[in-house]
């Protein structure tokens, strides 16, 4: 199925479009998203990866090379946005792995996808926080991270999931 579909080219194109939209949203709405002490981080790349896993699980197949594309997108994300190579390279493929595990246990639909996305955003932000603490780039307390970064980030990204789930599903079905 994957070899002969438009999904072969559309998957990476839309993945990198989401990657650059993350930065654009953060730049355009920086006053609203990064008001001290709170920070909301856009994760449209994670949304595209999670939706890709959920929609391929609907078909009963797991033949998309989402793990490889997640690693490539993580490398571009690290080099372009953070300048520190290695964090997103491992976190994005881990998100694909966790989502595939969860999708094999839970029947994928809109509400279970929302729960899986909640878990994935928590994993992405939590591991990013732990990595920055390990490299001594962040000295903030864990409670401050939970309240000022994780909470607003979850609220923003879950709202984006609700808004973009069905348009992404339409694009995925069009590409298939």
From TrEMBL:
Its main location: membrane. Coiled coil: none annotated. GO terms for biological process: regulation of cell shape. Keywords: Cell membrane, Cell shape, Membrane, Transmembrane, Transmembrane helix. It comes from the Bacteria. It is a multi-pass membrane protein. The chain crosses the membrane at residues 69-98, 110-132, 144-168. Belongs to the MreD family. NCBIfam families: shape_MreD. This is Rod shape-determining protein MreD.
